[in-house]
């Protein structure tokens, strides 16, 4: 991988995408690379996948070195605080952050405890706030404007009691999206994007996933491409801040008594 760019030689805007080694974060990274962004590919445990994402982003931009991988444990405050400066040191500037990485572990009202809550709040909420804070400070110093996109969940508008700590952390992040939009304006816009059922997991068979994916007013939920396109739109539209775009085929309008993975 080529060495760091200087600010003068940086050919385009730079975005940090957390959790970009695989799944939804990878799709977002590739879509933004196709739109010409330099991409900082964050990962925690998926180093090999993250490097593949970076390689594929270079292909999308046609510029070798337009993407680079960065490791950080988002549950560790010191590691989170060091992440954006590392991206700036490599690319010379950062213009946007997409908080895609999420901890998603099951608990319930009956099994809830401080440890699970703390772990989810650190990774899913606190890290996103610290990265927005760091981006604002960086852009203030350079006199440029930028944006933060926080990945939320249609589950917040269609609540059920499953994944209790995860849902609390996303609810807190949704509130933080509004608060940050007020606190960081006019320098930084802050937008939420809330997907519906988008990717399957080990908890769902392919047939069951396909069946659940169709349970929405539009007869389909979100695809990775739908969500990534919405993130790109949120980053490009300079009139959007302090709100959430729901990309779920209307699933938030329906009542689901359990989380999709447990239905």
Could you describe the 3D structure shown?
By secondary structure, this protein is α/β, with parallel strands linked by helices. The chain has one domain (14-262): Rossmann fold (3-Layer(aba) Sandwich). Helix content is 43%, strand content 14%. It is built from seven helices and seven strands. The chain has helices at residues 23-34, 47-61, 77-91, 114-142, 164-184, 206-213, 224-236; strands spanning 14-17, 38-43, 67-71, 96-99, 146-151, 188-195, 244-247. It has a seven-stranded parallel sheet, with helices on both faces. α1 (23-34) packs parallel to α2, α3 (77-91) runs parallel beside α4 and α4 packs parallel to α5 (164-184). The longest helix is centred in the middle third of the chain and has 29 residues, at 114-142. It starts with 13 loop residues before the first strand and ends in a 16-residue tail after the last strand. The relative contact order is 0.13.
3D shape: globular
- Do you know the CATH topology? Rossmann fold
Major beta sheet, strand line-up: 3-2-1-4-5-6-7
Model regions low in confidence, pLDDT < 50 over at least 5 residues: 1-10
pLDDT averaged over residues = 92
Helix content range of the residues, please?
40-55%
What is the count of helical runs? 7
Q: Can you write the helix and strand succession as a string? A: EHEHEHEHEHEHHE
What is the β-strand count? 7
């Amino acid at each position: 991988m080529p060495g760091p760019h200087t600010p003068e030689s940086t050919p385009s805007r730079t975005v940090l995408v957390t959790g970009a080694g695989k799944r939804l974060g990878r799709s977002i990274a590739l879509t933004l690379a196709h739109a010409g962004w330099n991409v900082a590919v964050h990962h925690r445990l998926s180093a090999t996948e993250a490097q593949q994402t970076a390689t594929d982003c270079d292909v999308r931009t046609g510029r070798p070195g337009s993407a680079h991988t960065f490791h950080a444990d988002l549950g560790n405050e010191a590691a989170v605080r060091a992440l954006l400066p590392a991206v700036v040191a490599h690319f010379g500037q950062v213009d946007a952050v997409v908080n895609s990485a999420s901890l998603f572990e099951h608990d319930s009202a009956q099994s809830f405890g401080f440890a699970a809550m703390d772990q989810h709040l650190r990774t899913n909420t606190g890290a996103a706030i610290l990265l927005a804070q760091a981006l604002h400070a960086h852009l203030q110093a350079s006199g440029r404007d930028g944006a933060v996109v926080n990945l939320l969940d249609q589950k917040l508008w269609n609540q059920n009691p499953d994944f209790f700590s995860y849902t609390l952390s996303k609810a807190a992040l949704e509130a933080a999206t509004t608060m940050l939009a007020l606190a960081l304006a006019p320098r930084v816009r802050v937008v939420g994007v809330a997907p519906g059922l988008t990717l399957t997991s080990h908890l769902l068979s392919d047939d069951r996933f396909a069946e659940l994916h169709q349970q929405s007013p539009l007869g389909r939920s979100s695809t990775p491409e739908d969500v990534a396109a919405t993130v790109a739109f949120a980053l490009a539209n300079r009139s959007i801040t302090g709100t959430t775009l729901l990309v779920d085929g209307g699933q938030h309008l329906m009542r689901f008594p359990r989380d999709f993975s447990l239905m």
